[in-house]
Specification:
Length: about 575
């Protein structure tokens, strides 16, 4: 069976499964829509959380970034996994103990202020919209290559699928759909690299194959990779830092605390019955996430080696243009891979020298998707990878869109504008908000703003500078006042956005060339995508400074903070009587 037909069958079957689950689990109440009824088993919630968390950035982009950055790309592995540990230990159990539906609702109650809740909603929407752009790009890229349709058409198809299971069932449908999507994406990610690891090293375990010797040789795979990249003028794969050590630290920190502040992941822990279930599901999520994250370095290293040896089989030799393989021609059609024969020698020169390099476009997002084709794996494996890439993008897009919709319907409409509306009216408003969010996300996917076109790292920086500090201070400090929290969130996200827009023309975007030195006006050499950690420091500093000169929070708020951190048998934090003041 040809690849196109097989891909249609595999992807179509996965979509049919998602839609069937949506009909089976459609929401009948706001509790179903926002938190799946609060009765999801911890293991299932861990799997759904893993799918929600492992977006197109994890499935499609991360290995590509590691493949081209080498050691410098490890910031994504360390930042995203480390951040999930922070989320599991310092955020999820306490918010589950509080027992409400959304992050802005907690911030509004903890800081006894509707203004604080509104600011949190704005921060949430900014972070989530920035993040969802990357997911929409992932949908378009996967469709455009494997279903051989236009990028726009692929994006429209993805929007329709998300509309069916997200609008129909809310969190309930999304949860059980994400469980299916996790199974699809993890098989799609691991099966190809098992084949490739066997080809290159004879070891079927990719994590071990990366550190093994090459088949039929005494040389190690990573030594061979270092040799071939340096022969072409690139920096050594295994030791090259990302711009500077300080930038690496700040980038990792920004991703870590941004992870712990992303609302679409946090709300997943509201779907389990008890606080201890939140901890348990976080542990299971880490297990499920680790399967992909420990495999990603192997995918990256092996794909980079295969790519280079296709372009330059031996030192000084380069691929004859007319003999370029079929996978190369296939990806040329998408515009994500291109070359220019600058010296008219009929060969594709691939070197680090920009003046000589004739491989003018290699989008890093194609590495995982093209990897099975480069390695000449069977068509069914290639079709499975297409389904996995779409599952990863769709699962996270649905979670992000739900976070946006719930912020609008529950926090703004029900919580602030029309508190008297019935549950049925709120459920209708939630579905309308979700549909509008999907339409807006589709528009941004078709017309991505330049500052966020190539990366979701910015979304983590924005969450790190705004939501994470507010949550940490809200949970662990009784002294932070509403004025301090509001000022901190505005200052943190404000300075981060200013820094990003100030440098939007020169910021690092994966998939583009970055050959110059650090721009002289970068603060301590920190790139914009890593600036969220600095924004978080500003947030904490401003919040504590303002709180020190304003009246302490009311007694009921201080009791709320104390009760959130007490064991399960203590009174629920949301049972306390709070007075939300109008500013």
């Amino acid at each position: 069976m040809d690849l196109r037909t097989l891909t249609y069958l595999v992807v179509g079957a996965s979509f049919a499964l998602y839609i069937a689950i949506a009909f089976w689990t459609r929401a009948a109440s706001t509790r179903d829509f926002y938190v799946a009824g609060g009765g999801v088993h911890p293991v299932l919630n861990g799997m759904a959380t893993a799918a929600d968390w492992m977006s197109a950035a994890s499935f499609i982009s991360m290995a590509g970034m590691i493949a081209f950055m080498g050691y410098g790309g490890s910031v994504f592995l360390m930042g995203w996994t480390g951040g999930f540990v922070i989320l599991a230990l310092l955020v999820a159990p306490y918010l589950r103990k509080y027992g409400k539906f959304t992050v802005p609702e907690f911030i509004g109650d903890r800081f006894y202020s509707r203004t604080a809740r509104a600011v949190a909603v704005v921060c949430l929407i900014i972070c989530s919209v920035t993040y969802v752009i990357g997911q929409m790009k992932g949908v378009g890229v996967a469709f455009s290559r494997f279903l051989e349709v236009e990028y726009d058409t692929g994006l429209y198809l993805g929007m329709v699928i998300v509309f069916f299971y997200a609008v129909l069932g809310g969190m309930k449908s999304i949860t059980y759909t994400q469980i299916a999507q996790y199974c699809v994406l993890i098989m799609a990610y691991t099966i190809p690299v098992i084949f490739i690891s066997l080809q290159l090293t004879g070891n079927p375990i990719p994590q071990l194959g990366l550190g093994s010797t090459l088949a039929g040789s005494d040389g190690y795979l990573l030594d061979r990779l270092d040799q071939v990249v340096t022969d072409l003028g690139f920096r050594e794969y295994t030791t090259d830092v990302r711009l500077s050590s300080l930038n690496m630290v700040m980038f990792t920190l920004s991703l870590m605390i941004g992870t712990a502040g992303l609302p679409h992941v946090i709300i997943r822990f509201f779907t389990v019955p008890r606080v201890r279930d939140a901890r348990s599901s976080a542990g299971w999520a880490l297990v499920f996430i680790a399967i992909l994250y420990t495999t990603a370095p192997a995918v990256a290293g092996m794909a980079r080696l295969n790519l280079i040896e296709t372009m330059a089989p031996e030192p000084g030799q380069h691929l004859v243009a007319e003999e370029r393989p079929q996978w190369f021609r296939n990806w040329e059609k998408t515009g994500l891979l291109a070359f220019e024969d600058k010296n008219d020698d009929g060969r594709i020169t691939y070197t680090a020298d920009a003046a000589e390099n004739e491989l003018t476009t290699v989008d890093q997002d194609i590495i995982v998707l093209a990897n099975p084709e480069i390695a000449r794996l069977p068509n069914w494996v290639i079709a499975l990878v297409a389904a996995g890439g779409l599952a990863a993008a769709l699962s996270t897009a649905a979670g992000l869109l739900l976070a946006i919709a719930s912020a609008i319907s529950h926090d703004l409409l029900k919580g602030m504008v029309f508190p008297q509306i019935t549950e049925k009216q709120e459920l209708l408003a939630s579905r309308v908000a979700m549909a509008c969010a999907i339409a807006a996300a589709g528009y941004l996917g078709l017309n991505p703003p330049g500052f966020a076109a190539g990366t979701v790292a910015l979304a983590f920086g924005l969450a790190a500078s705004s939501i994470f500090p507010a949550l940490m201070m809200g949970i662990f400090s009784q002294r932070i006042t509403r004025e301090g929290a509001i000022a901190g969130m505005i200052a943190g996200i404000g300075i981060t956005l200013f820094y990003v827009f100030q440098h939007k023309g020169i910021m690092f975007i994966p998939g583009t060339a970055f050959l110059g030195a650090t721009p002289p006006n970068w603060f301590l050499g920190i790139e914009p995508n890593a600036f969220g950690a600095v924004g978080a420091m500003v947030n904490f500093t401003v919040a504590f400074a303002v709180s020190s000169v304003t009246l302490a929070p009311p007694l009921a708020v201080r009791q709320l903070v104390e009760n959130i951190r007490t064991p399960d048998h203590a009174p629920a934090a949301h049972d306390l009587e709070l007075v939300i003041h109008d500013e």
